[in-house]
Predict the 3D structure of the following.
Amino acid sequence: MKLDSWHVTHQEVPQFAKLKGHSYLDGQYLSLSCADFAEMYTGHHLWNNYRVTAVLKPVTGTEHFVNIRVQGAMRSYAAGFSKNNKLVLRKNYYGYTTLCETDFEWKVDEEYKISLTADGSTISVSVNDKEYLKFTDSDLPLLTGCAGISVEKGSHCLYRDIAITGRE
């Protein structure tokens, strides 16, 4: 993949929309970093039941996520690594809240394959092909949306092999 170059100082990663942050291609990785938060999206707002998988490599900071059923900047689900060695599943409904979490000792500069699967109102989260979290959202579930990646609180993460499968 090559960058879209508007001019020397304005380059964007193609096939993604971005809400804040700094993104660029770094060899095999898509790099995303932020001062406060950053999000990138791809796909279609009408996707419903599907899986998004990405290999992520935290570089700095504590908040590194893969997103599913993204409906713009204000509605989505995000799963990934958070402070205090947690694997979390969060919902953004005009602000992020944690739906469920578990202890998971993750390390900076190590790669992890994270998969989020959306099936009806249930979201499941796997790391390295092992399911760790599963949550059925009964409070205004998000039933459609595109896929994405995100970081928060000054974090920087590298992503590769982003794949969407099983789209309906």
Notes: The radius of gyration is 15 Å. The chain is about 0% helix and 65% strand.
